[in-house]
Amino acid sequence: MDYLSAEHVTFAYQSESENEESLEVLHDVSLGIRKGEFVALLGHNGSGKSTFAKHFNAMLLPSGGKVYVDGLDTMDENLKLEIRRRVGLVLQNPDNQLVASIVEEDVAFGPENLGIAPPEIRRRVDDALRAVEMYDYRLNAPYKLSGGQKQRIAIAGIIAMQPDCIVLDEPTAMLDPRGRTEVLDTIHKLNREKGITIVLITHYMDEAVGADRVVVMDEGRILTQGTPREVFSQVQLLKDHQLSVPQATELVWRLKQEGYDLPLCALNIDECVAALEPLLKS
Amino acid sequence: MARDITLGQYIPGHSLVHRLDPRVKITLTLAFIVFLFVASNFEGLLLMVALMFAVLLCSGVPLLQYFKSLKAILFIILFAGVLNLFYGTGNVIWRCPFWPVMQITDGGIGNAVFISIRIVCLILYSSVLTFTTTPTELTDALERIMKPLEFLHVKVHEIAMMMTIALRFVPTLLEETDTIMNAQKARGADLESGGLMQRIRSLIPILIPLFVSSFRRAYDLAMAMECRCYHGGEGRTKMKQLCMTKLDAAAILCSAVFCSAVILCTVYLPASLR
Q1: Which of A55, A227, B66, B245 has the maximal Cβ count within 10 Å?
Q2: Are A110 and B228 in contact (CB under 8 A)?
Q3: Residue A41: what are its φ and ψ, rounded to 5°?
Q4: Quick check: A213 and A224 in contact, CB under 8 A?
Q5: pTM for this model (two decimals)
Q6: Taking Cα atoms as reference points, which of B18, B17, B47 lies closest to residue B121?
Q7: Is A44 exposed, middle or buried (0-12, 13-18, 19+ CB in 10 A)?
């Protein structure tokens, strides 16, 4: 059974005035995510991907359809805390999601809310900080850290609640390239070593390449999904919806359009080099 | 500039005073301040001064730091001192030739000295608290101390949480103010010249964006807190438990001895304030 499952979800933001029609952002979206899977949710601004993601920990409730987390219905008010413990959400702006003025106390915030015994919190906080490689900074003030470091602290704050799944809503959008790499490496490591299910929302195509599955959203619907190779082979479809593909993929695709004999898809620089090398040598 | 501002005035260290339980520190500081006012004669005040020097030396904070905190309120000390010169009874030492009501008496001089020492002690005692306790410890301790108020339906946990968040966002908002100021300057805003009204008016283009972004931050933070299962103070635990040690007991005992001595002085010796 799928760990996260959305069944025919529609969602509309309630309008302020009565005469205005409420704005429907998601139209009949169905998606299942297996335990331990790494899913990248792609789409440009306004595609409904963030709205969709907030359904997975009951931050938003569907206007129609159902969302289940490990079989728990998100509509059930009594299950809300348990669902949020199981599915953590990391937001875009690292500054706005840290609560305490000392790193380790911020990481402890989640477990403290869950009413866990103090020695156990201490252990979890230390483990979580080691998992994101920020243990040495545990007594620092967050405002003195870099964006990438702050975002890793935010992730540690979620890990300390021992979730099964982490949803990250454009966690790298406000970071410099180095911060992006730090955060992505951390996410991949958690997925690999702890088996945590990851839903990564992003509009950077390069970040999606490392995922097990890519889901592309556009205008509140799922446009296409599959392995990164399957999805990025459909260059024309993505381009029709104003979505870009990774640069390496784009280069190979364009050359192919010009009539060169090349493989269908190159996901990263290495594959691109491998594809072009024989061509250049001949 | 914003980055240089230290939160609170905490000076890291491992001295005896640093290691005290923050609840004990807050309570004792309050008690000392009360007893500064209980002491009504120089004998009692001298005891409080002696205790203060003992605490200052135990705090391991360079004495220069304490002088700095005094310098900031030098004006208030002088003002209170000079004013008190003229309030007092006793032998007249000097009388203003134009305005006979203004007179300095030996009692007035005594009062001025007494009041000045009292203010200096007040400031130094509270400085010891802020120099040796982190803001987090302070809010934690306040939450514990105010716990009994919950019976009166005071939302103690919420108040403490607000203080924690406020402290957390001070540097963030300072940094943002800097950014906005620079952005407005880059657009040609003139923040430095003009009269008082002009300057106040020129603050508006800085305050409005700051407000707007604070609300956005508040919204984000509320969501992040909910995502991390925050649901008020009910059923919440704390990673760091405050616990009293023998050191705290010793500190309380010493303070009690001094304070009782001050009471004895007040009861059995004549008051110095005239």
Answers
A1: A55
A2: yes
A3: -105, 110
A4: no
A5: 0.81
A6: B47
A7: middle
Helices vs strands, H then E, count in chain A = 11, 10
CA distance B120 to chain A (A): 31
Structural domains of chain A in order of their starting residue, each with its CATH number: 35-61+77-223 (3.40.50.300)
> What tens digit of pLDDT does each residue of B62-120 get?
888 888 888 888 898 999 988 888 887 778 787 777 877 778 888 888 889 999 999 99
**Chain A from 137 to 196: CB within 8 A of any B CB:** 141-144, 154, 157-158, 161
Average pLDDT over residues B268-272: 82
- Average model confidence (pLDDT) for chain B? 87
Average per-residue pLDDT for chain A: 89
B167 in Cβ contact with A101 (< 8 Å): yes
Question: Which positions ≥6 away from A52 have C-beta within 8 Å?
Answer: A6, A9, A11, A26, A29, A31, A41, A217
Residue B228 in contact with partner chain A when CB distance is under 8 A: yes
For residue B161, the number of C-alpha atoms closer than 13 Å in the C-beta half-sphere is: 19
Shortest Cα distance, chain B CAs vs residue A158, angstroms: 7
Give pLDDT tens digits for B21-32: 999 999 999 999
Contact (Cβ atoms closer than 8 angstroms) between residue A170 and residue A92:
yes
* Contact criterion met (CB below 8 Å) for B63 and B131: no
Amino acid at A48: G
ipTM: 0.86
Pairing outcome for strands A221-226 and A165-169: unpaired
Return d(Cα A188, Cα A195) in angstroms, integer.
Answer: 10
Strand partners, A167: A89, A199
Chain A residues touching B224 at Cβ < 8 A: 89, 91, 96-99, 154
